[in-house]
Amino acid sequence: MPFVIDIDPVAISLLGLQIRWYGLILVVASGAAFWVASREAARRGVVLELVGDAVIWVAVAALIGGRALYLLQNELGMLGRDPLHAFMVWQGGLSFYGGLIVGLVALVIFARRRGLPTLLALDLAALAAALGQAIGHLGCLIGGDSYGIPTDLPWGVVYRNPGAMAPLNVPLQPTQAYESLGLLILFAVLWRWRVPLERRGVGVLAGLYLVGLAALRFGLFFLRDEPPMLLGLKTAQLLGLAIGVTGLVVLAVAVHRSATARASTLSLEAIES
Question: Are 188 and 35 in contact (CB under 8 A)?
Answer without folding.
Answer: no
